[in-house]
Amino acid sequence: MTSSGTNPDPPAAVGWAGAWEVLLPAASAPARARGRALQAALREAVRSGLLTPGVRLPSSRELAADLGVSRGLVTEAYEQLTAEGYLRSDRGAGTWVGGAVRAAVPRARDLAPRDRGARADFVPGTPDLSLFPRAAWSAAQRGVLAELPHHTLGYPDPRGLPRLRTALAELLTRRRGVVADPERVAVVSGVAQATTLLGFVLHARGVRAVGVEDPGSPEHGTLYASAGLDVVPLPLDDEGLDMGVLRASGVRVVVTTPSHQFPTGIAYSARRRAELLDWARAVDGLVVEDDYDGDFRYDRAPVGALQGLDPEHVAYTGSVSKSLAPGLRLGWLLVPASLAEEVVERKRTMDLGNPVVDQAVLARFVERGDYDRQLRRCRRAYRERRDTLVTALAEHFPGTEVSGIAAGLHAIAALPARYGPPDHFLTSTASAGIAVRSLTSYTRTMSDHHGTDNGNDVIRLVLGYAHVSPTHIREGIHLMANATRSH
Ligand SMILES: Cc1ncc(COP(=O)(O)O)c(C=O)c1O
């Protein structure tokens, strides 16, 4: 997101590689409209914050070659946008995104519904929605409507229905090792709302910056920025957040995904978990733990939540978005005692609480063991899909390394350089109707060698597999091999 660690910039920038992907449609506009389409797409990429001030653009020759358009068209687009103040150029030296523009609207691209027209879709983030337990959910719904007393249909406790808070406290204690008193559980509309709530509460307390993992979830940055906080990207090493950079950054709040880092797929080591908590105690800070897919581990029992080790320095959040469906918009937030009242007050002023019937249905679903059954069913399916993906990659892209722990809904695949260069690989997959994300598109700080990882040509893909059937995984990887071989 930022080219320097403390720059308060627009949310969710994805670096040049991601921006380049949004220019592609302009390149296939009808010849007469192509120049204007390219200018509009580039302008929008800057205005929306996808490209941040200081990012260096590729040379007109390189971009023209990547997009398959004439160099004159790119030169003209650069000149036009430089005149308008979106870009700044230094003759002979290069072209950069200018500093005049401030992104006004958080980018919604990553929250937009996925492209259902894709021939193969490996975009991560969604569970298999066909596994939604319709029969059990509708039985719970009928049961709840029959038993809910009239008075419960009034304005709810903004913390959530007591019955649901009790059910969640039991569930999170048992499954995730969370320290969860029902009085301290807040029901929210997903991790997204938990993030926004925390952002507002922290801002009101005078916090001005929050550290996020880089690479990381674009939503973390977008949502904290929307609450007025500066978002500071912090690099990772093999064990988790780089503690040296974290300490030097000066932030006192940091957002993490320790059980299964998004998107790299690593699990924080025991040592790094301890170091993170030591840091939080030393600076009187806060670690926000986003446990978005912590229930899905295929090689061993899930590692318990960080929050269990120090509930007064960790805010814990999760949701049913990966286990049931993101469209339910139901999740939970547990914060240290010192923040609890402010969080509830924010929740009250935000929406007066979540819908009561939905909360009661989830409570019943959890109480009756349906939630555990659903997790077991999904885990079996997703483990098989991950194995299928690994096998298909080995067959069609020999030499590929799949990294990250066997967990969650996505894997990282590093394809050998001979399938590259990455930009061409991504162009070929996009033209073949294959929806796939590169790891660089989740990176906020720019590497100056656009489209590649630290200058080498390994192609790192973030492959979501949970929502794809084993047959479609095999077909999709086969399709990808055909599309990239013929390039
Ligand atoms: C890292 C991460 N956290 C949380 C979520 C889910 O957010 P929510 O619970 O608001 O649906 C996602 C969604 O893709 C995610 O990638």
TrEMBL record:
Lineage top rank: taxon: Bacteria
Protein name, per record: GntR family transcriptional regulator
Keyword annotations: DNA-binding, Pyridoxal phosphate, Transcription, Transcription regulation
Limits of the HTH gntR-type domain: 32-100
Membership in a protein family: In the C-terminal section; belongs to the class-I pyridoxal-phosphate-dependent aminotransferase family.
Keyword DNA-binding: yes
GO molecular function terms attached to this record: DNA binding; DNA-binding transcription factor activity; pyridoxal phosphate binding
